Amino acid sequence: xxxxxxxxxxxxxxxxxxxxxxxxxxxxxxxxxxxxxxxxxxxxxxxxxxxxxxxxxxxxxxxxxxxxxxxxxxxxxxxxxxxxxxxxxxxxxx
Length: 94
What we know:
The protein has one domain (about 1-90). The chain is built from two helices and five strands; from the N terminus they run βαββαββ. The protein has helices at about 20-25, 70; strands spanning about 1-5, 45-50, 60-65, 75-80, 85-90. The protein is globular and about 30 Å long. The N and C termini lie far apart (about 30 Å).
């Protein structure tokens, strides 16, 4: 799946302690060994806010675990592993 890293989390609040904890809690998956990006072998340290990239357009925001390098690539698109659960953030909209 291809996603786009969106800028920030404006209007969203997480009550899990961090967005990475939010992903762990709601995905019910263990933290992956590597970043969600298919060609990255760095360890995930944070959760990025992303949207699905492609047609049909999906305005929903999700979080996924990524390394710091991919976290900093705001506005860029990249492919993620199919096994990564996209966890919606809209349930915590403030």
